[in-house]
Amino acid sequence: MQIKEFRVTLPLTVEEYQVAQLFSVAEASKENTGGGEGIEVLKNEPFEDFPLLGGKYNSGQYTYKIYHLQSKVPAYIRLLAPKGSLEIHEEAWNAYPYCRTIITNPGYMDKNFKIDIYSQHIENDLGTVDNVHELTPDKLKVREIVHIDIANDPVLPADYKPDEDPTTYQSKKTGRGPLVGSDWKKHVNPVMTCYKLVTCEFKWFGLQTRVENFIQKSERRLFTNFHRQVFCSTDRWYGLTMEDIRAIEDQTKEELDKARQVGEVRGMRADAD
């Protein structure tokens, strides 16, 4: 088992991030769906009585999605896994500002594969809070902290998009950006940090370490690219309400159902190293 805590600092308020994240998830879903692969939304509904962080958060929005992603896993897994087994199920309990996401593969790996992601969002913070997830001492010993800098961390050539570069983007609506220099975090207002605790388990003899390393590497790549997109789409989501977001999500579900059946495979490939 590997435990990493990714800390992503952004020039947003926590309230803004709630809208920005959901808007960007909808957009990213469309960008990664087509040609028989992509994202299928089964449920998107309110939930209650699911305690998070010791019962501090109990209600919010529940989503259940299936990711059809044959081309988005490593080649050595595709060779070993039977056809049709590479469906990933994602359940998320969004009790914002705290969220939990569980990722499994019930059709093939069952209890031998699980990714657990806890997300906390802190206002006026540069990523310096030591234990926002209230981990036990034994888990703190093995937790690795990874700071993600959306402006300065390298991205793969296959992932780079000129219109999603925080070092050149400036929001017309807010005036924020571009994010320049190694210490840009100290000079932006507002500012917040997402704390994403990722625990992964892959119980497959001979492959466990290799695949868990791949999962954590992929999560870092995903968080970096996603939050670059979040900031650089500020003018598209700024001013939207949660009612607007729910309407966008409903429309996106219909679009995904259609797009998954036609066209070409789209989105981030696993082997684009």
Automatic annotation (TrEMBL):
Residues 1-254 form the Phosphatidylinositol transfer protein N-terminal domain. InterPro entries: PI_transfer, PI_transfer_N, START-like_dom_sf. Coiled coil: none annotated. One of its GO terms (molecular function) is phosphatidylcholine transporter activity. CDD domains: SRPBCC_PITPNA-B_like. GO terms for cellular component: cleavage furrow; cytoplasm; Golgi apparatus; Nebenkern; nuclear membrane; plasma membrane; spindle envelope. It holds the Pfam family IP_trans. GO terms for biological process: actomyosin contractile ring contraction; cleavage furrow ingression; male meiosis cytokinesis; meiosis I cytokinesis; meiosis II cytokinesis; meiotic cytokinesis; meiotic spindle organization; spermatocyte division. This is Vibrator, isoform B. The gene is vib.
